[in-house]
Amino acid sequence: RAKQLGGGRAEVHRPGSPDPSQDRLAVLEQLRAALREGQLRVHYQPRVHLRSGDVTGVEALVRWEHPGRGLLSPAAFVDAAETSGVIRELGAWVLAEAATQAVAWDREPGGRLAGLQVSVNLSTRQLADDDLVARVTEVLERTGLAPSRLVLEITETALMHRPGAALRALRELKALGVLLAVDDFGTGYSSLTYLKQFPVDELKIDRSFVSGMHTDPADHAIVAGCVHLAHALGLVVVAEGLETPEQVVALRAMGCDQAQGFLLGRPGTPEALALARAEAPDIDLTAAGRTPAPS
Ligand code: C2E
Ligand code: MG
Ligand code: MG
Ligand code: MG
User: Fold this and answer.
1) What is the dihedral of CA 218, 267, 169, 143, to 10 degrees?
2) Please, how many CA atoms are within 13 Å of residue 74, restricted to the half-sphere of its CB?
3) Residue limits of the EAL domain (predicted)?
């Protein structure tokens, strides 16, 4: 089941600990404490318009500043949170934090990060949660974030887990005016019948296809096909995991709208993102030979 939730997440089991289930329980105990004690952080990765180079939004990505183990990526704890249900509190916290941050950027002098969209990942269990719509409504009201600036990212796998229920949830979310994205597209079991019915706005092509584009003709064809399909369905298409200038050139030639990746900006603290924008207000993608910034 952990595998189904997508994208090569590591097990929480640490080498040297005798019992993985004990380990998982320990992680959960610590995660609950982390929520209470404020050890979770949200990092933000820019999303860029491929033609203009403008930053159109940021994706909120959770991190755990673990007292003993340092900064942990979601691979170390999101699956455990999902299977145990702790994901509800974790997800609610990330949503509130991201919305609060987006509004804070609006108020900053200079306003370089004002008006950006903020994307938040939803898990399978969150999507099935009866309280989801109420929670999103509450956060939008409390923070004053315009609904059209919130993008909820849902993996194909989460959508197809119970497609009928997902469809109802998506319709309710759409009615709030938020935007919906299909995340990691191409890696789950998408039914095109459902894709056609789901009221989604954006399709994110999984990094695995984007990274293979220049070595594997099949990956190149899949990416081109996804761009075409997305546009035919009237969706904005975003490429994930952009790492090389060659990928920029190829994606632009395909007409891909937007991209995210280490080449354009790594996930970082809100302060780091503000700084990156100050140093490079206009990311120049016109130079095909542009080298990635050292990280
Ligand atoms: P995702 O939503 O597909 O997020 C993109 C992941 O790709 C992020 O990993 C990001 O750091 C990474 N990435 C971006 N550009 C590049 C690149 O150019 N090269 C490479 N190699 N990687 C790149 P991260 O932050 O470790 O998150 C992994 C996954 O954890 C996310 O995949 C998402 O499914 C999940 N996740 C993160 N935050 C949350 C959250 O708040 N709630 C839930 N439910 N899931 C979350
Ligand atoms: Mg992914
Ligand atoms: Mg995502
Ligand atoms: Mg993704």
Assistant:
1) -160
2) 24
3) 24-281
pLDDT, tens digit (0-9, with 9 covering 90-100), for 172-229: 999 999 999 999 999 987 788 888 999 999 999 999 999 999 999 999 999 999 999 9
Residues found in the chain: 295
- CA distance linking residue 285 with residue 189, whole number of Å: 33
43, 45, 61, best to mutate for ligand 1 pocket (most atoms within 8 Å of CB): 61
ipTM, two decimals, is: 0.98
Q: How far apart are CA 157 and CA 185, in angstroms?
A: 9
Residue nearest to atom 12 of ligand 1 (CA): 241
- Residues pairing with 82 in the sheet: none
Atom 45 in ligand 1: residue holding the nearest Cα? 121
- The CA distance from 88 to 79, in Å, is 12
Which residue's alpha carbon is nearest to atom 41 within ligand 1? 62
How far is it, in rounded angstroms, from Cα 172 to Cα 273? 32
Helices within 177-216 (DSSP H only): 192-197, 207-212
From 42, 71, 78, 161, the mutation candidate for ligand 1 (largest count of ligand atoms within 8 A of CB) is: 78
Dist CA 82 CA 125 (whole Å): 7
Q: Is the CB of 183 under 6 A from ligand 1?
A: yes
Task: Find where tokens 């009201």 sit.
Answer: 141
Give pTM, 2 decimals: 0.90
